[in-house]
Amino acid sequence: MTRRIHLLMALISLALAVDKYVHMDLKGAPPRPDYFKKSLDLFSKLGAKGVVIEWEDMFPLTGILSSASHGNAYSKADVIGILEYANRVNLTVVPLVQTFGHAEWILKTALFEPLRENENYTNVFCIGNPATKDILSDLLSQVAQLHAAVTPMPFFHIGADEALIKPGQCPEDLEMMEELGTNDTKILVYHHLRTVAKLIQDEFPETKILAWFDEFKNADAQTLRDFELDQRLTPVVWKYNPSDLETYLPDSMWGNLSEAFSTAWGGSAFKGANGAAKIDNDIVPYMSNNQQWRIQLDLHSGKFNRSIEAVIVTGWQRYDHFTGLCELLPTSMTSLALSMDMLENGNVTTEDATSISSILSCPNSTTLVNLIAGNDTCKYEGYQVRDSIKEIVKYMKNFDDYTWIHNLENGWFGKTAQDRHYSSRYYMESLYGQYKKYFKNANRMKKDIINNFGAIYFSDTASEFLFDRVDSFTEKLSRGIEDMARIIGRRSFPVRPLF
């Protein structure tokens, strides 16, 4: 084991430079255009080669597709401005459009319900349905044409991860498999991915197609060649574990991929991979994940004719279209900076920390320890959102950990006391004062969240965040205050039994 650690550290010390692309996930907390641009500026200063933009329902779609658009979707002028700004700060833009799984944003609607693999689930396209091809052709063309009109488009990402509903369920799939002369659903999937790649490359032949590696990791290399996927696609291998990536991405998997493909990309994370309900960022697991990825690059790049060319540092805003918001970009900018540095060098030095601190507008006294602990006071764009989230999370935890309050609740403010307004006025007066204090402060924090979020996000982001993460806390306090006031106002109580 010691020898292996020394080998890995030696590899890190000889690490080759790798292109880094920051992922912008717009299915949660899509930023206002101005904040989008300021974020791109920070990505560039932190060493990003480009940005992968997962537009989902925020793209300014036209025609039948517009019926599935977000109510706050960007205008065409907004997108042009974002792409032009990316050019200005020397970022290559990679559009990402899901073309297999993770299609909830469109398949959830009644109009597109017939395109589902399984009529009960909104996750996956029925890939044998000719109407699916027509819709994807329209969708891909709209996105690609607008991108290519503004900025070079060397890459286009077609998703294809986590197709949770197995293909071969809709009638059109079964018909397609019969035409292909197979009962192997993988053949159906490869036929679909080749079709999707051709939809883009027939119009933009110089554009290389990226796809998450889920459908390729155990594939037969000859079958991939038979479907021209070795020529048309580049697999993006993703894994977000903070340790033991070699367990999840074994040498045999890399060998299998390199037999079919001349190159690959990687996929690490800087946020949004530490729990679907996690709203504050713990930096260390992400730094560890990117350090593990540095090791993977050095161990396996040599297997490919053109090495592993790049890594997408992902930052999910939701786990999927239906989950709540998780770690937002302003809570995670320090995590991104440290993760990018770890991915580049395999470690972060005090000199690196000084450079990061300058880019993130941190006080001169900021140390590497401060950055890793996430207790910095850096004033990068959007830091107020970070601070307001930290404040409310800390305050709610303070309440949860307040043993004295909970002892009183358990003893004198249980369900009977609340329902029958039957308890000791003496203890209620003490508890009432605490509830009032927490309620007042929490409402002040909610106002700060609305103001700070509103500066960089559309108004629905703050509303959703509060509704999911905070309102249950203040509603509990409000109900408690009301019930305690009724108890305190009573001059007498009935004799038992109460039931």
Shape: globular
Helix/strand/pairing category? alpha/beta
| Helix and strand element order | HEHEHEHHEHHEHHEHHEHEHHHHHHHHH
List low-confidence stretches.
1-7
Radius of gyration: 26 Å
How does this structure look, described?
There is one protein chain. By secondary structure, the chain is of the alpha/beta class. The chain folds into two domains: 347 residues, Glycosidases (TIM Barrel, Alpha-Beta Barrel); 104 residues. Helix content is 52%, strand content 9%. The protein has 21 helices and eight strands. An eight-stranded parallel β-sheet has the order 3-2-1-8-7-6-5-4. Helix 2 links the parallel strand 1 and strand 2. Helix 19 packs antiparallel against helix 21. It is globular, with a radius of gyration of 26 Å. Keywords: Hydrolase, Signal. It comes from Pristionchus entomophagus.
List the helices and strands and how they pair.
Blueprint: H1 2-13, E1 19-25, H2 33-45, E2 50-54, H3 76-88, E3 92-96, H4 104-107, H5 130-150, E4 155-157, H6 171-180, H7 185-201, E5 208-212, H8 221-226, H9 229-232, E6 233-238, H10 245-248, H11 251-260, E7 264-271, H12 283-300, E8 308-315, H13 329-345, H14 350-359, H15 368-373, H16 383-400, H17 403-412, H18 415-420, H19 425-456, H20 459-469, H21 471-488
Helix pairs in contact: 1-12, 2-3, 5-7, 12-13, 16-19, 17-19, 19-20, 19-21
